[in-house]
Amino acid sequence: MFKILRPTLVVFALLSALTGLLYPLAVTGAAQALFPAQAGGSLVLRGGKPVGSLLIGQNFSDPAQFWGRPSATAPMPYNAAASGGSNQGPLNPALADAVKRRVEALRAADPGNAKPVPVDLVTASASGLDPHISPAAARYQAGRVARLRKLPADRVEALIEDHTEGPLLGLLGEPRVNVLALNLALDAAR
Q: 53 with 45: CB under 8 angstroms?
């Protein structure tokens, strides 16, 4: 019996060590060596303290800041441990109610803004953690942010333009604006 089990146990132990220990250590080491910022979570530091990550959205609620996409994570927004979409389809009344409330909140925060509300300001991303908004969503909020920060509108528009990232490799995805980076640039513009 032991002659039959021994090769099985040896292969199990070797594959466990290889796939459970050696491979993860090699991949982590390579990531740390080749892409240290990304492997460390793309943390943004101010005064030596982390203020956020460029990879995970944050709950900006101050009207003088740009707001990101709504988060679908629960029980708290932008909880990386609870990443996932809401799984609400376009015909779900709960989604329609949530979108309506979000549109109303955006209109209340900027009553003079009659522009159409960009869809990414009222719907969550698939992960619920997206740190980006579309340039249209940033421009939609520019008037409110400029007014509340007492900055010229063209200065805020220029910051949006400066922080608009193009498609990956010029081909993949859409232009986008990292909300944390834009808000930090606004803080520095004072």
A: no
Q: Using CA atoms, how far apart are residues 15 and 7, in angstroms rounded to an integer?
A: 12
- Residue 174 makes CB contacts below 8 A (sequence gap 6+) with 134, 167
Residues 9 and 40: their CA atoms lie apart, in Å, by: 36
114 and 103 Cβ atoms separated by less than 8 Å: no
pLDDT digits (tens, 9 = 90+) for 89-109: 788 898 889 899 999 999 999
Could you tell me the sign of the dihedral formed by the alpha carbons of 89, 92, 98, 99, in that order? positive
Q: Are 160 and 138 in contact (CB under 8 A)?
A: yes
Under a CB-based contact definition with an 8 Å cutoff, are residues 127 and 85 in contact?
Answer: yes
151 contact partners, CB below 8 Å, separation of at least 6:
145, 186, 189
To 5 degrees, how large is the angle CA 74–CA 75–CA 76? Answer: 90
In a 3-state reduction of DSSP, which class is residue 80? helix
Task: Give residue-wise pLDDT tens across range 106-151.
Answer: 999 999 999 999 999 998 887 878 899 999 999 999 999 999 999 9
For residue 30, what pLDDT is reported?
94
Whether the link from the prior residue into 167 is cis, omega within 30° of 0, is: no
